[in-house]
Amino acid sequence: MTDHLPSLRETLDAHGLSAKKSFGQHFLLDLNVTRKIVRYAGPFDGRAVIEVGPGPGGLTRALLESDAGKVVLVEKDPRFIPLLSELDDGSGRLTIVEADALKVREAELVEGPAHLVSNLPYNVGTPLLIKWLTGPWTPCALTLMFQKEVAERVVAQPGEDAYGRLAVITQAVAEARIVMHLPAAAFTPPPKVASAVVHLIPLAERPAPDRLKRLERVTAAAFGQRRKMLRSSLKQLGGAALCEAAGIEPDARAETIDVAGFLRLADALT
Ligand code: SAM
What are the protein's GO molecular function terms (predicted)? Predict the structure, then answer.
């Protein structure tokens, strides 16, 4: 347990630290909340966990109490490194990396399968998700805090307002569900919006990189003009003929096509 440590608020005060807007900092200072998130993320069965943006270390403390074999922190704000070092018990289980998570190569941080857990900085949440789901390194599971609207766009189903490119790309490569909602007041300082935690498990069989690229082209065109019929929004890519080759009704709109339908459109693209 980490109960012997001073509270997160006392730790921040002792280091003279406060949240910086430019780093998207909104902290979770209630360990009951961070422990709950880690319960949704686990069990880890001794595997490594990468935590992006640990900040004052509320999630880190909960991860250190869990069955994670290793905990690797990636934090961009150098002010937090000394504070996070205080969580290191010298056993070699904790690694602290000062880096930009958008640039870091995760495969160099961990050996074998690893989980990803993060209360993400909102301004880089979506690019980080896309990096982890479609890039060269993929975690075995991801448990990520997003602003509520983004979480809804990740898990949205056809016909829902939030259904779009992010839902199709994410669900083509992973199972995704919202496991927890948090009001703005749960954070210090509170952001302007509510948040939600999404748990994602990458599919065992994911589309090959070139198929994903084609899926990105099709979804960008289809949802770029989401109110238009596909025969028109996909005109540059083959229009009605492309739809027919994919077994899709050319008069349909993007928001009604499921992930399997978009994959067929991507496959029909030459
Ligand atoms: N995990 C902490 C918590 O729950 O209290 C802090 C969450 S705060 C929303 C986001 C954290 O991500 C901050 O510590 C911030 O400095 C860090 N951060 C912002 N941009 C980053 C980036 N590109 N790479 C790594 N960390 C980043």
Answer: 16S rRNA (adenine(1518)-N(6)/adenine(1519)-N(6))-dimethyltransferase activity; RNA binding
Question: pLDDT per residue over 218-237, tens digit each?
Answer: 999 999 998 999 999 999 99
Q: How far apart are CA 38 and CA 162, in angstroms?
A: 27
Q: How far apart are CA 138 and CA 112, in angstroms?
A: 11
At 1 the pLDDT is 64
Question: Which atom of ligand 1 is found nearest the CA of 121?
Answer: 10
Q: Whose CA is nearest to atom 11 of ligand 1?
A: 53
Atom of ligand 1 lying closest to residue 54 CA? 1
Q: Which atom of ligand 1 is nearest to the CA of 74?
A: 25
Q: Where are the domains of the chain?
A: 8-202, 209-268
What gap in Å lies between CA 191 and CA 188, rounded to an integer?
8
- Tell the CATH topology of 209-268: Helicase, Ruva Protein; domain 3 (1.10.8)
Q: What pLDDT, on a 0 to 100 scale, did the predictor assign at position 125?
A: 92
Copy the structure tokens of residue 10.
């006392």
Residue nearest to atom 19 of ligand 1 (CA): 23
Mutate to test the pocket of ligand 1, among 28, 75, 97, 106 (most ligand atoms within 8 A of CB): 75
In angstroms, what is the span from residue 23 Cα to ligand 1's centroid? 7
Identify each DSSP E strand in 122-267 by its residue range.
141-147, 174-182, 195-202
Instruction: Please state, in angstroms and rounded to a whole number, the distance separating the CA atoms of residues 33 and 86.
Output: 21
Identify the CATH number of the domain defined by range 8-202: 3.40.50.150
Q: Model confidence over 121-157: pLDDT tens digits? A: 888 999 999 999 988 899 999 999 999 999 999 999 9
Residues paired with residue 52 on neighbouring β-strands, in sequence order? 74
pTM above 0.70, yes or no: yes
Q: Which residues line ligand 1 (CB under 6 A)?
A: 23-28, 52-56, 58-59, 74-77, 100-102, 119, 121, 124
